[in-house]
């Protein structure tokens, strides 16, 4: 196959979605970007620090700095706390139902974050067909750490946490908001840079 258009660069940038230690290490070595799912800024160094360090030690300087882009639910306003619950179904699905009980990478990730017992409970409920109960069992602390939900001041603080952990949030949300003093992106995806002063 021959390209019709001339590429604007000699190399197509690669961004890899990885959460396992070996895959994260490989990403840090060979890719321009890393897209971690369910990013917990307070646990990032503990969970991925060693893998990132090992991969970066072998990284070609020509690749530049590893670009870390994370996704997070977004809702801004004075009355949006209840919207945290909108993130429960996805977390329950991934932790509870993505893979067999002993081969679920997302449940393992939750365990590495310090929620091993909670992850096992979510799996028990989800695999038993009790999806609502599994959603309710998702720890609130995990939800808050991975989300950009709250007032502008609260979100600014959370953006600082993401930035300190090396992440540049790309907050995606399609939550219809009918509460007072609240706003969500008008399109499917809004980008929030780690510079919380914006």
Topology (elements, then pairings):
Elements: E1 15-16, H1 21-30, E2 33-34, H2 44-57, E3 67-72, E4 74-77, H3 88-97, H4 105-127, H5 131-136, H6 140-145, E5 148-150, H7 152-164, E6 168-172, E7 182-183, E8 189-191
Parallel strand pairs: 1-2, 2-3, 3-6, 4-5
Antiparallel strand pairs: 4-7, 6-8
As residue ranges, the low-confidence spans are: 174-198
Spatial strand order of the main sheet: 1-2-3-6-8
Order of helices and strands: EHEHEEHHHHEHEEE
Count helical runs. 7
Mean pLDDT: 84
The largest β sheet comes out as: 5 strands, mixed
Using only CA atoms, what is the Rg? Answer: 18 Å
Number of strands: 8
Oligomer: single chain
Shape: globular
The percent of residues in helical segments reads: 40-55%
Report the structural category.
alpha/beta
Share of β-strand residues = 5-15%
End-to-end Cα distance: 45 Å
